[in-house]
Every structure is written in C-alpha cells, then in structure tokens.
Amino acid sequence: MQISLKSQSSLEYLLVMGIGIFILVAAISYAIYYQVGYNSAGSVQNLQLAATSISNAVNAVSNSGIGSIQQFTFTSSGLDLTSSICNTSLSLNYAGKEASQSLQMYTTGVLPINPGTYTAYVKSVKVNGITEAQLSVNLPISYISTSYIYNPSSIFYNVSFLDGSDNLVGNVNFTLIIYNNDKIIAEQNETTISGYYSGSISPSSGQFLPNSVAEIYVSSLGIISPSCFLPQELLVVPSNIINYVPLTITNSQNAPTVSPFQQKVVIDSAEYQQYEASNLSNVEFFYPNGTVINSWLESGNSNTAASTIYWLKISGILAHSSETVYLGFASKSTNLFNTTNDGEAPQLSSTYAEYDDGANVFNFYDNFAGTALSSQWTSSSTSSYSIKVDDGLTISLPSGAAAGGAYVNSVNAVVGNNIILQGLINQGDESTTNERGLIGASISNSVYQVWDNGGSSGDTIVGWSAGKDNVGNIIQAMSVLNGAYTYLNSISSNSNLNIYSVFVSDSTVGTYVNDGSVSTTTTDVPPKPLYISLSDYSTGGGAAVNSFYQWIRTRAYPPNGVMPSVTIGSVQPQIVVFVNGVKDGNNGIADSTTMNITAFGIKSSHIGLMINGTIVSQLGSASLSYQKPMSPGLYNITVFSNQSNLANQTYWEAVAAIPKGITNFVPVSITNQQNVATPSVFQQNLSIDSFLYKNFENSSLNNVEFFSPSGSTISSWLQSGDIAYFNGSAYAVLPENYPYNMGTSFTISVWFKTTGQGVIIGNGNSANPGSSGCYSPTIFVNKNGDIAGGDWIGSEPFDTNYFVANGKWTEVTITQTPTEQILYVNGNEIASASGTPQACSPTYWSIGTGHSGWVGTDTSSPEYNFIGSISNVQFYNQVFTPSKVASLYDKGLAASPLTNSGLIAWYLLSGNVSQQNGHNAPTVTGSIQFKGVSSASTSTNYWIKTGSIQPRESYIVFVGFSLPNVSLFNNTNDGEAPQLSSTYGEYDNGKNVFLEYGNFVNGMGFDGWTEAVTSGSFTPLATNEGIEMINDTGGEGTHITPPNPLVEEPVIAEYSWKFSEGPSDGEILSLFGNPSSLTGPPVVTCGGGNLALGDSVMLMLEEVGMNCSGKYIPAILDNVNDKIISTVNNLPSITPQNYTERLTIVNSTFAEAGAFNFSEVYPVSEFSSLNIPINMEGVIPSVFNYPTMMIAAGSGGGYTYQYIQWAVVRAYPPNGIMPVETSGYINGNPN
Predict the structure, then answer these.
(1) What is the domain extent for residue 615?
(2) What InterPro entries does this protein map onto (predicted)?
C-alpha cells in the first residue's frame, strides 16, 4: 500500500479497501488521521482516530524539496488496523453426498508500522494540470480475497492479494489453517503466483464440522484473515443425483403455511430434456441436507412437456419467508420412481398406481386401485345404483331407473378448517336434470345428500353437484346448510377428467374447477370437521349416471389462499471453474495479465481444459491449474470430464487491450439466448446502471467508451439516462375515458422503484385526483411498504403483504375480468380477489397519484402521491395469462410491449420526460398531462454496433472510463442523441451505429435525407430540435425519406417525435412504403374520406393525429381503396395473403400532444406471432420489394405541427428478444 501526502492546505484522503488515511498538510508539521470503515450486518460503521504528529516532513511546495529524502517518526506503536468483511453464502455447485458451501473473506489486515523512523521520497506530480509535491511511503499489502468451497473430504480455495491500488501482488507466502474447537484439523503452506493461488486441502479428520473456523495467515506480513464460521447446514446431495436446480419457494403472505404443507411446483420439463428420462422417472426433490422430499407428479409426465405439475410435501414456511429446495436429476437410465417419496399419479404409470406415493404426500389420499374400496371408506346404495372399484371408482345408475341414491363417504371427518378437498372426476356428460351429487364435504358419512332438490332439513354439504333445480346439463357448486343452500359457480356437463375443488376456511367456503376462477360464500357454511362425500341421488326416470373417480385427496389451504411462489434457478455445474478469481462466469481482464485457470471436478476423477477448441491440459486428476500470459482477444474456455451426464463447463474470458486514455473498465457479457443468430450488423441495447460507476463517470457521461477485447472502439450512441421521477406532488393524468376500449377486462403493467408508500396507478372520475368522487388505487404501495391494489370490490382493495418499498425496480401487473382481479409481482401471482369491480364514470386513469384512504394512515387528504421512479406503463384491453404476465417481467424494464394485440396505450416514461414538464393541473381533454414530473438518471440506455452473436453464445465488450475531465465524445464512435448535447447534434454519431439514421440538424441535406413531395407552402424546416413540419393550408402535405431502402432483413424503425393539437381535420401521418408513384400529399379527413394520393400504392399503420371529436386516432390507411380501413377502436380480423415480399407494420406508443414518442416496425412474418389484427386484403405487395422509411405530414383542413428529433432503423433481434447483458467486475477484478 502507498500513502501519499500532498502539499495542499486541505484535507486529502486515500481510501484503500476499507481503510481511509486522511492527511492534513500544513507548513511545519503534519497531523495524520486514519479512518476504518467496515460493513457489518448490512450497516456501515466508521471510526476516526487521531495518531501522532509527523515532524520534519515536507514544507510548503518548493523546488528545493522536489527529489529530496525526508524522514518522519511514529512515536506510538504504529497503525495496527484491521478491517474485515466475512460473508458466507450457500453455493449450489456440488453433488453426490458432498456438502457444499461458498465463503467469501476479505480483510485489510494489520499494517505493521512499528515505532521508529521511516524514510519517504518527495517527487513532483501533476494533478489536474497543477504541479504538486507528493510524499510517498510504501507500506505492506492491505487486502486479502479468498473464496472457499467445502465438501466432506476437501476444501477448494482461491486466494489473491492486492496492494492499496487494488493491483495483484505475487509471490506472497501464506498458510491456510482450519480450526475446530480450537484444534487445527488442517494446515497448508503456499505461495501465490501472479497474485492468485488456487488449490485444495484435506483435513486430517476427513470431514469438516459445523462451526469450524477458516483462517488465512500471511507469515511474511503478519496479516491474519478474519475468522469465518462454516454454516450449521451444508448442502448434501442424494447419491443418485448428478445435476440439480435450486428452487426458491417464497411465502409472500403475512401468515405462515401450515406444516406439513403441499406445495405446487410447475416445471417446464422441455427445458431440462438433456437431463431427464423420457417419462421423468429420474427426477427427485431434496432439501439442502440431502433429505428426499416426498413428491407426486400430477400431470405432464414427459421430458417434452412445457408444463409438468408436481406436488411437494414440505415443512412449513414462515410469513414473508423463503426456503430453498432442489430439483435433482439422476442418470437417464436410473428409475427413482417408488411408492414412498418419488411418485406419480396412478393413471400415468403403465401399470395402474405402480408408482403412486400420493398417500405420503397428501393429508388424505386414495386412488381406488384394485377392485375393492379401502378401509378409508364406508358405502351404501339403493338397488338401482351400483358402486364399482376397478382401478378407479364408478358410481352408476341405468337410464330410466327408479329414484334412489348411493354414497362412498370417508370413515373419518378429514375436511376441517384450511383444507382443500379435490378429486379427478369424469361426470360422464350425461343429462343432469334428475341428478344430484358428485363430490362434497358433508356433515354426515351415513347418507347420500339430496342437495337442493327437496332434501330434508338435515342436509348439510358443500361441494359440486351434477344438477340444479331441474335445469339443463350443468354441474353446480353450492353450499347447503340444513336444507338451505347458496349457489356458487357452475360448468357445463362434460366427459372430461376435471379436478373439482372444495375448500373450507374459517367462515368461508369456496369452489373451483381445474385452475379456473374461485367462487366463495360466507352464507350457508357447514360446521367443521366434515366427511368426504362421493354421493349421488336421482329423482328417477332420467338419464343414466356414470361418475368416474380417478383419485381423491385433501391438502393444506395456502396462507390467505395464495400459493407460495416458486423461483427456478439454473442447472448447477458439477465442474467448478475459477478464471482469474471469478467463479463460474464470463469476465474480462487487462492486457499482459496472466490468465489463471483453476478447475475442480466434483463428480469426476479426471478433467481437462480446452482454450478456443484446443486441448491445453489433458484428462488428469479431479483438479487442474493453468497459468499463461495471454495476448488480447476473446477466449473460449471449456473444462471437460470423463464422466457421463456431466456437462462441460464453458465460459468466455476477454483479455483486453486497453485503449489509450481509458483508466478503468467493466466487462459486459452479451448472451444470445435464442436459437437463431443476430444479424451480421446488429444494434445491441445496453442498460448501464450509472450509479454503480459514479466514481468513474462524470456528470455528462462523456468520458464513457465501449471497446472490444482487441482494444478497438465500438460505436456507441447514448440514447438517454432519464426515467420519470415523481417527487410526492407530481403526477400524470390521462385524458377522459382514455385509453379507449379499456372495457371491464384488461391488463395493466408498470415498473417502479420506491422506498415509501403511494399510489402508482390510480383510477377516478375527475381530471383532478384530489376532487374525484370515485376512487380506486389500482396499484399502490401501502403504509407497510407492501404492494396492494385492485379496483374497489366491496369495501376495499386487497393487500398482498408483499414488501416492495426496498429501493429496487419492481414490475407489477394487474389483470381484471368482470368477476376477478389478480395481482402479480415480478411475474408471480401474489393475490387475487373475486367480485364485481367498481366502475368510474367518466374514467380518468392517473400515474403516480390516487386516493389515500387505503394507502396511509392519514385519510384527511383525498390525494396520495407517489415518491420514486415509474417507467414502462402498458395498458391492454385483454386479460393476460400467467405465462404472458411472466414474460412482461422477463423482457425487462425497457422492453417494448409484449404484443400489439389489445395494446391500447404505452408510456415508456424514459428519455423524454423533460419534454413533458411544465404543465399545469390537467384540464385539457385529449392529452396526457404531467404535473411536476422530472427525470432521474438511474439506468443509462446505450446502443452499440456489434457483429453477429451466434445462438446460445456470448460476446464480451468493455465499458471504459477515461479520467472525469477527459471527454471522449465525438460524432464518429462515442456519441449521444442530438437533444442531449448543449448544441443540438454536436456529438451525434447515430449514422455510424444504426442502419439508417437522421437527426435533421442541417435540414434535408443531412445524411442524405430528402423531401420527396411538397404541395403548396408545406415545407419541412430545420430547427434546434430536429425538423419542423408545419402546415396551415388544407389539402397539402409532404414526406421525407432516408437515402437508402430498408435492408433486406427484418428491421425495427424508431423515431422521436411530437405534434401539437390542431382544429378538426388536422392530421399527421408517418408511414412506410414505396414513394415511386406518389403524386400528391398524403391527406386523410376526419370522416375517413379519400386519400389524396393519386395512383400511388402505400400501406400505412401509424399515428394519425386526427383531431376528430377531441381524439387522436391511430389508423390503418389503404390507398388502394382510397380509405381508412380501420382505427384502433374497430380493428378487423387479420387475413394474411401469403405475402412473399417483406412488408412492415408499426407498433406505436400512441402519441399524445406535446410529448416525444417512439414507434417500432416489425416484419410481416411476425403478423401471426404478434397477433396484430390488420386486414391486408387489397394491398398490392409487389411495390414493397424495397420499402423505404417515410415520415409524412398532411392536412385535410386546418393546420398541423409535427416535430421530429431523430429517426433510426435498426436490426430486428432474434425472435424479437434482445440478447441479455451481464456486467462484470471493475477492471476485471472480483475483489
């Protein structure tokens, strides 16, 4: 470590990995202060102490002092400082009865500055161009980084030493010591090579014990690492398991689950096909201690199934808590199925119930195997009915038979509070006019219930009955109490095997079929406990009865009716690879650095190493070590083994040639997760969290540059770093009754970040949220910091007890039908409510504000505003499935809408928020209005130009930082969007990043853009915001085009634009097509009259700012028939015409007056997958062989104003999904 004393009369400091040494410089003597900062249990603690004065040091800056030798004396025992961090975290990388644990230990060690005289040197340095004298003293190493991985037989460790500037220090002697109960059980002496050392050690006892202590002792420096305890519970993997996946089960509710608890787990088996047997017989679940979890496979028993349902019998989970379990895979030839803990539903086995372990998973279970009822049942029937057991239970009655009944009831009352009764049943699709009964929970086990058809006053049951008041062929759910009854939900009579469910919870009962909607009641609720009743009754003379029961079970009711969510991790590797200190991950290092590779094979006795496809280390022992200086480039590192079913581990390491001027860098791994490559020229979006690198960036971000491993600069374009920020009084209100066609069935998605309470999405009947008499905070954070929401059903919305006021970005989706609302957080369902939502009329949707009664404790104010950031608000007039909701989260914060189908409004609230400030309280109908909304740079949005990234492969680039006072911006490689510069377009290099680009800073001539048609006085003008297209004469218009046709591949086109409101018949058009035959300005009227386009042919789908009845209407124009063929309010069904030529369509943000907006263009091949309802009939495709991006403005009457900042065309990502980015460590250093 180096301590620097600067000759300035100000307090300077050097912060070195937890130690800050402050030096106050004066003319005669120096007082030295030091500060020790360390992190403990998440809190930062600082301690500042005074040391002795230092005499006879450097006087004021003088030429005579430069180059001299100075001495100073410590009269005390010196700076004996120790600052440590000891973090222990579970590692999931090992298997086969080998307990695993990952341990990170950091220390600044002890600085052995003993009393005595020290010599220092004075040299001349320049800081920010000013000459200073600097006194330097070399002191010992201050930091150790270690990474430990444990199993019962050995410890694998990776150790590095760094100096005060975080540079690696080699040739350091150290000793690794393992203690247990103050007794050394393992000790080993080593020496680092190039700063890193990786090795293994086996304790003499042959195993590590809980509460063992690990320490590093560096004898040459007198540094001892902090003591770190092994956790009490180490990961133990069952002996048959080779690969496994962590599953995190989270109970988001304010109440614990019961114990035991039946947890539902849904697995996409097709994703793990390479590990699974065809029938999933090699799958097993286990706890971290190796105990197998009883599991029951309900459906989807194939390794090609997209949805496989398992039930796990687990111990209870506390409120607001999580538990990690594991999904394990044995070899494909291993059959783990049995009737004890790894089983499946009876009908899934080739021999009925051969591997059915349901009795060991559920509270009550029967599969009716064999030919007789088990002792769990009692039964009886009249002469007309029959009860038959033959690998399933059938209760039947011949057609036209006399009145009578039958029952198969449980011997014991097994349905109590918080119990769900379920059965897989086929009702038989017979007429239910004269029939009653199917499955229920009854107060008696000795009768068949008559349900609602004239039964005795003693009839008491809740469940599903085949029939209702002599009405039709339906299966009706109801609750009956002493003959009085309440109807719940119903389905049509059918011949399907359905899972019928009945749950009993306190004073409420409910019913549902399969995973359908839940119906509940608090009326006519039977007392508990209850018997299971599989009964039937007929009034006689009706249709036959043939009710078939596959299995019956009871399971625990989840807390508040919400099943704990399951987060699925990735398959854990069985070969562990360290590359320059980074475990199991892609990274980058600097040029001239030795690449240090260490690998350990847990299940394999022999592993080898390949670099870029060449074997550099043959199959040898269970571990290997490889060190070699590497020239700049991108290296594919693969460790392979001789063990079948163990996947090779492949990572990318980039050795970077650092461009001149770059002082720090961060590697970024870009992974194409799709099955097709990106185009050969591709525009990759990168979202960089600037806050993480605030110590390296300047405020304008002009010292940031992207470069490749070879050191060549990558063209990059800074689009924005702003996301809408709501300060507690700011908000936005949408126009009256907008979005249009919202209806009673919809989906709303929003991203937000907050540390407090407030309404995120509100709904009322006034443009002023504080004056609304109809209030409904659709999505909000309550006074406890939990997410809550739902339009008013009954007396209040529903609370989720899911804490989100954590300062992290969170995605929330709410779906609503006329009878149900479901709330999702980060793709997982966390709450739901049944009933009819309140409707506000008129409707005003708001962002960042809403009624306060349910949000905070103060209900005196009718308005409760949000504090934090909000982005990417999407409104759909359709209800998304759970899988589509999960996709909204998976696509990320800055993603485009998931689909055009049903999309009726989209507010990204990013990059253009500054253009939306300054509005007063919203009063203008027809325009979204923002009050006080500002922007905050949290996630900086860049576009970089890359080459092709192959399927399932990664590409590493580097984000480099020059000194903060050195600007890298230019209009060639390192640039930004034109409006971000103080002089418009000063550092805009978009033309070197995108396929097509224009910022119109110099009018039409810039970048080859031209004005294609002008009519009358309608002429585009260059402004300080791009291009201005103003028209004040009816029937006139113009359009502009880039220099080249679109490339012959799928593309997305975007442009930043705005328009101002105008009188009736004022329109703005933006389109894509071939302008070769365009003979007049593109104009359309409010009433949808003819287009003044002569004989030209053009397809257009874009914002048409038609100020008709106060609305701006998106429309599809088809000038073949000279008409508007549809608007967003009435889109026809899609009828593709098997086009072979490439067309484009537009996905818009639905422009609002005065706000910049973005539009996206997709290829015609995406019509079906995007499900965009456009009628393509009558469009002639041949003229679109080489379509051109066209931006147009026209008017049927009155005036229009259109402003365009920039327009781009970029490559379409694989399958529409942008490759995923992962940032590495500063300067490639994991420490």
Answers:
(1) 575-644
(2) ConA-like_dom_sf
